[in-house]
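Below is how a single chain appears once it has passed through the pipeline. First comes the sequence as given, then the structure the pipeline wrote out for it. We keep one example in the README because the format questions we get most often are answered faster by looking than by reading.
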Amino acid sequence: MKQIGLIVYLLILVYPYGWCFPMEDLSRKIDITADVVGVETETPAGKTYIALRNKIYWSDNGGDDWKIIDLPEGEVSQVKAIGATAGAFFILTGKGVYKSVDDISWEDLKLKGNMSGMETLDDNTVLLWKGRTLYFSEKGKMRTIKAPEVDSDIKDVKCGNGVIWIFTANKILYADNNGNEIKRYYSREGDEVTNGSERSEIADYDEQTEIIKNVSVCARGRITVSTNEALLVISDPLERPEKIDTAGLPSRNVSSALYTGKGIFASTGKRVFFREGPFSAWSRVFENTAGGTIKNIKTDSNGKYLWVLTGRRIFREDIDLITAGERNTAQKDQNVPEKDLYVPDIQTVQRMAIEYAEVSPDKINKWRQKAGIKAILPKVDIGCSRSDSDNTEIYTSVTTCYTVRGPRKIDNDWDIGLSWDLADIIWNDAQTSIDARSKLMVEMRNSILEEITRLYFERKKLVAEERPKPDMKHAGRIEEITAYMDAYTGGGFSRACK
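Resulting structure:
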């Protein structure tokens, strides 16, 4: 019976999306009574730290055993961020920054409190930020760094390969390790990459909707940036970012991404996906069934473990086991569903997506026609008034005085007026509103067409590869992509397949 139960469990993990790895839940080893603030994994000192709002755990054996760090007594209001270097551990709290070299005693660095975030450079250097200002603290001396390029609140700061990366909601900037000469690297407003005097166009750019969501430092100092439109990997400030193909992956829902030497991981809501190489398909390797959405994914400095952070749970597993399990599953021949005998062409599918999202150009044309007709129709004014009057006469003499009242007079007046503004026939204010809506509709339509086109040809490629040698991995991916395409077409794609 145990063997049957194990087989059923594995089938649930594998079907229908492919391999789903049962990761270790570390919340069973530590008492997580508050939200997880951050994790520092396999630091240069060989330690791993997990920070909650009200306590910090550390481990020196990769997370097998955990101990509690005593926080500065009576001084820490709330832990906001942590950082670790080869010889020191730092915590950012609501009251300031504290440093420890032995995880027992603490030194108050006397830095400004109420900061938004912290990043550590070395044992004596800390970067802090709040609003649009970056603070550079070295050996207790604070230096304020302001630059006109930072024209909105700083969202995150990361350090890698001797470069300080500064991220706002729609810009990426960089500076050297001393914080000198902040330069713009990638501007979502300017539709360009600027490296000194060189300027090059960015393809598939949408300045209205693309927002930077998460930033991670990865293998070999690379930076992975996830936005609501794409995944980017940055290797060098003088080189253009590498755009990761997200075909088959709900890119708008990607909350974080992580580049490793084995491939790239991406989290979306409650799931983690993995892609081994540029020509591989995305495969689901983990799903959080315990509740709560995934906030971040991380790896250690050696690239050994994958860490998945949710609100109050932390999962961990060996990356080699995850990737090996995914590959082994892909190699097993399985019975797969019978494929479509007929699949509509790409133009038909694109029309389905446009019609379902109601972003057809015909909609704007109808608005313009109705705006023209509006100028021909008159403006109608209807009025009503009522008046009451009394007639009273007063007579007086030497000996007498009397009053004579006449009948009350009531008048009701009605009026109706028609007016035209003939200038509206040539141009009216409605045209300006239509132009603005037309621009937004074009951007939305292009985004939908890009995604549905990628899904269509990714599915077509998988079907072609699967037919000679059916396997469960391709079957799950085909079903997943079909579900995404049905979401874009309101189920029209599946109904059209015969």
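The longest strand covers residues 379-389.

See the next section for the split statistics.
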